[in-house]
Design brief:
Layout: H1 28-41, E1 49-55, E2 61-67, E3 70-72, E4 75-81, H2 85-92, E5 95-102, E6 107-117, H3 120-127, H4 132-140, H5 150-163, E7 175-189, E8 197-204, E9 207-213
Antiparallel strand pairs: 1-2, 1-5, 3-4, 4-7, 5-6, 6-7, 7-8, 8-9
The structure holds flavin mononucleotide.
The site of flavin mononucleotide (FMN) has 16 residues, from strand 2, strand 4 and helix 2.
Length: 215
Amino acid sequence: MSDPPELADLRRPSRDRPLDPEALPREPMEILRLWYGEAREAGLVEPNALVLATVDADGQPSTRAVLMKYLDADGPVFFTNYESRKARDIAGSPRVSALFFWPALERQLQIRGVAERVGKAESLRYFLRRPRESQIGAWVSHQSRVVSSRSLIEAKFDEMKRKFAAGDVPLPSFWGGYRVRPVEVELWQGRAHRLHDRFLYTRDGEGWQFARLAP
Ligand SMILES: Cc1cc2nc3c(=O)[nH]c(=O)nc-3n(C[C@H](O)[C@H](O)[C@H](O)COP(=O)(O)O)c2cc1C
């Protein structure tokens, strides 16, 4: 298959927004909070989406988008099915990489770190904030398993709707959050002539080392 002819020539002039290392917070989750806020203010679609990379027992990586549902100094939290491929990968090797990519802002922020389950109470707190249909949806899907037809999934959804018709939808034992605890955080801001700004935060005891990387 040949590339579309314009692909190799596709480029966009950079807006050349400098990233001033003096002005950057020393705490990398603080910059994630700032950059997420700016992506949101810019009206970007899914500004909280991150691409999560995991690795299986054979060393085969997988990537998929998930949504950051909240963030604190310990790292971003996303929610998923604890029996999915990503969950199986994490059980075998908790080391993950998470990439926030905001092309309209010429920015990416990469976290290398460790994924760990949040407590049940914490998952429940978030679960209760989800719309009822999404709560039921969490019960329906055996995420990442082969399913023979869509109609089976829809039938299960109807069955669960009936089952939980009265009262609250309980938190499934196989559903909850993961926090991505950063060990290294890398910032990338696009600049003119490919002279991009890159900075690396590396965990050092309770604090962080900070260095500029060549683009
Ligand atoms: C923009 C976007 C956001 C998504 N957010 C989530 C999410 O927060 N949690 C989740 O489990 N799956 C989410 N998905 C679906 C995942 O990408 C993926 O298909 C699913 O989690 C199964 O992944 P796995 O088989 O690798 O475990 C999202 C997909 C997209 C495109």
